Amino acid sequence: LGFNSFERIYGRTAANATASAGTTDDALFQGGKRAPRVDEIVFTFHAEVHLTQVRRGLGITLDDIRASCGSRCASWRVGSSAGKSDSMFLYFGHHVAKSINESEFKFLTTEYLPAFAAYTDRAPYTLLPHFSFLFSVTWLASRRTMRFVVMNNVFRTQHFIQRMYDLKGSTVGRDGVDAKSGEATVRTGFGAVLLKDNDTPNRLMVVGPMRRAMLVAQIQSDTSFLQRLNVVDYSLLVGQRSRSISTADVAAATVTPPANAFLGPGGHHRRSQSHGDPSTMLHGSEGSPLTVGTPGGHKRSASALAGHGPHGNGGAGPAFNPAAPDQLDGRCFRSSDGGLVSLPVHESANGSEAREDTFYIGIIDVLQQYSGVKKIENMAKSIFYDGSKISIVPPPEFAQRLCMLVERVTV
To answer: Which of 2, 134, 253, 334 has the CA that lies 20 to 30 A from 297?
Structure first.
């Protein structure tokens, strides 16, 4: 698989570090027995039966992994978690290897992967992590072992992502930027500001009725799967990349945001931040009309784009019609440079330019069950805060809350 690339970080593999027969190197042999070298390591792969099924269901090929591990890969990067898990990440190509602890490893091999292998057969476009390999690295000299799971990189693009959101649907302690100082409270391992629920505008993703319906349905399916496994504390990771495009060939309908479009979850106007107010940067000043184009010049009414159309389902639109040119399947989640492309959006005063966003979306951190520790955390925080707004709640409430958030931030 080309995992010899790990030598760049951990030194030589066991196969390369093992002395050849008949050597008399004192550094390797003591008393007639070979002593492990300090840099000698062994890779062990796990759960290959279930992971083979997962790779088949998700369309992951070994060539994809080889290409990411090989010399053509742009770079290998090492990062750390921005959260409380203190995990280590190895980024290579379009994949990432994340370190997991022993309890996560046990849950992954005994419960998650058997269920996930069956789930991918009926949900090939899932936004859950696309686990492809699970392996452990053991240093023979120290007997230290680290476990890694290889998955897809949500931000599968060579372009710069302007904004990153970590969303759970809760509001207590969910600030990426301090309200008083304007300083970032959480940064990624590479120094980028990680915005959270209280920093997220209501109209974050203007993707149109069909894409919105598919996205909401996929999130509902994925969170139901996690709920059955008693999983909580996962996040919806959203990356946003924006670019300017010409509106000369864009058929458009004008949408006026409602009065509460720029209000936060608590009903208060969103604050100005040192990096700019997200609602102002993304959606113009409050009350100003937005112009939303549709791909391919297919016109839709303003009320349908806003989610108040004649179908009465929040803009989900009519039943699926394969003949309609603007109706897609779940491949649209990653069809535009690895992400979901928005409708062209511009303010009416902007003239000939519009903004088109690409959103990179995935559910992460799916290996935490609602255990005794989580239940104690829920009870302790419920004493001081509203129990429905804290991060840790029972799995059914956690799943429903995240689905409601997705419905709120998509148009």
So the answer is: 334
Q: In sequence order, which residues have a C-beta less than 8 Å from that of residue 89 and are 6 or more positions away?
A: 78, 79, 80, 81, 96, 97, 98, 99, 189
Nearest to 149, CA basis, from 189, 188, 113: 113
d(CA 114, CA 118): 7
Judge whether 232 and 158 are in contact, CB under 8 Å.
Answer: no
Reduced to 3 states (helix: H, G, I; strand: E, B; else coil), residue 144 is strand
Positive or negative torsion for Cα 396, 108, 157, 87: positive
Q: Is 269 helix (H, G, I), strand (E, B) or coil?
A: strand
How far is CA 307 from each of CA 250, 300, 302, rounded to the nearest angstrom? 20, 11, 9
| CA dist 66 → 4, 73, 114, 115 (Å) | 11, 9, 25, 26
CB contact at 8 A, 39 and 12: yes
Instruction: Copy the structure tokens of residue 142.
Output: 């120290």
Q: What is the pLDDT of residues 8-62, one digit of tens each?
A: 444 443 334 333 333 444 444 455 555 556 668 898 999 999 999 999 999 998 8
The H-or-E segment that residue 95 falls in is: strand 95-100
Please report how the helices 48-58 and 113-122 are oriented relative to each other, as an axis angle in degrees rounded to 10. Answer: 20
Q: Label each residue of 27-44 as H, E or C.
A: CCEECCEECCCCCCEEEE
- Check whether 6 has a pLDDT greater than 60: no
Can you name the residues that pair with 346 across neighbouring β-strands?
291
Tokens of 264: 């936060």
Please give the Cα distance from 151 to 155 (Å, whole number): 12
Predicted local distance difference test score (pLDDT) of residue 185: 64
Written as one letter, the residue type at 25 is D
CA distance 252 to 397: 38
SS3 for 154-195 is CCCCCCCCCEEEEECCCCCCCCCECCCCCCECCECCCCCEEE
The pTM (predicted TM-score) of the whole model is 0.72
Structure tokens at 256: 């006026």
123 near 222, Cβ under 8 Å? Answer: yes
Neighbouring C-alpha atoms within 13 Å toward the C-beta of 230: 9
Q: Please state the length of the chain.
A: 411
Poorest-confidence range of 201-205, 308-312, 330-334?
A: 308-312
